[in-house]
């Protein structure tokens, strides 16, 4: 536009006053003398002002930038590349040096029209993704939210240093970082302060120094101190999936599912349910998800199902669903090519579904036994694609709702116990979902075999001790804040990424459906 062009034109006028205030006594300052006297003039300056004026006459003052027709429909959250037609060298401000007043000419950029053009630099679909899923997720992308609060992070680190030094500790802060829920400050373990002192002084640290300590975690030669954010940041599923790793066989087969963002280091927490992944061994076959109202239990379950379907083909993994609520939260799943059979919601239908799954397990174990092959993974490696057996994930939602019935419980528990103890090698996985786990709705045999524990906020210590095996889940923040134990007894505090259940989940599900249809 002429108004912008004239501004640039003034920058190269020899007699225009400088807009940068620099002390005249500074040496080697190109701005302290008139441009015509400087010996650092690049010959490329000749004609630049005239060229800017010529371009400005050919560009209309008003009107929106014309999108590049070959770039597709722009999306506001993707970066834009502004291109102007030019036939001569352009000044590159990024290349300005302290010893030169004129930058080196930038590479010439050509355009198909004599106007300012805005074109998207759309990210190409990464390897291992269905293009439809990548594009749908990127349209939902909400970058930058986790980085908000850097000044607050610095303030909390300074306050922590002051508080510890005031109490006689020579503290060294090794690291500080933001998580969706907190500032994580890591101090040297040899500073003299210990975990017990920090926990005991938590009230004093909050009232005197403004440090609301959420958790203190001992680590090797260091201590990680989690300070609650005044306002938690949202981590969207698009940001988590965007930095996820995949197997080379994806999207046809991927062994690990994304659970969320690990608070201790900001890395993703994976559940390698179907096999080893990176340096992680295969997880145990069965999983418990437990959480109270507003804990984020439904979003976590949805994320895991979408993950299975987006990065594993319908031939690799099948999904079955038991839900006493008649699938009210899973309408988007019904048309998914991975979904098998019907939703089992009534007592008799649920018993029939468990009996059928148990029979399938026994059939597979017979096949493996006859061939002397120890598990389904090795079996599938030796078979043609048409002969391979898909893994089956049985999701049993709202377990306590139906297990309160004593007659039903007596009929269901034998099947659940058998599946929990014998299904691993057959490629069958249980995902049991409880709002509140207690001894009445979960047998000890089943509890001991739900080796992957994804536990969100629970209402009391007793529920935490049953679901997690220890107290702690009652102190979680809710809304996707969880403690994970994946195949071990090590606790990993994690934040589940958010996906809006009504505005976004159906769109990702639809993209997955379209993606697999396109690959047929």
Percentage of residues assigned to helices: 25-40%
Compute the number of helices.
15
Number of strands: 16
Give me the secondary-structure category.
alpha/beta
Cα end-to-end separation: 50 Å
Please state how the strands of the largest beta sheet are arranged side by side.
9-8-16-15-14-10-13-12-11
Q: Report the sheet-strand fraction.
A: 15-25%
Low-confidence stretches: 29-44, 61-121
Broad shape: globular
Q: Whole-number radius of gyration?
A: 30 Å
Secondary structure layout plus pairing:
Elements: H1 2-11, H2 48-58, E1 66-67, E2 80-83, E3 117-120, H3 131-139, H4 150-166, E4 173-178, E5 182-188, H5 195-200, H6 202-209, E6 213-219, E7 222-228, H7 237-242, E8 257-262, E9 268-271, E10 287-290, H8 297-311, E11 317-322, H9 347-371, H10 376-381, E12 391-396, H11 399-403, H12 406-422, E13 428-434, H13 444-449, E14 452-455, H14 461-467, E15 481-486, E16 492-495, H15 505-518
Parallel strand pairs: 1-3, 10-13, 10-14, 11-12, 12-13
Antiparallel strand pairs: 2-3, 4-5, 5-7, 6-7, 8-9, 8-16, 14-15, 15-16
Helix pairs in contact: 1-2, 3-15, 8-15, 9-12
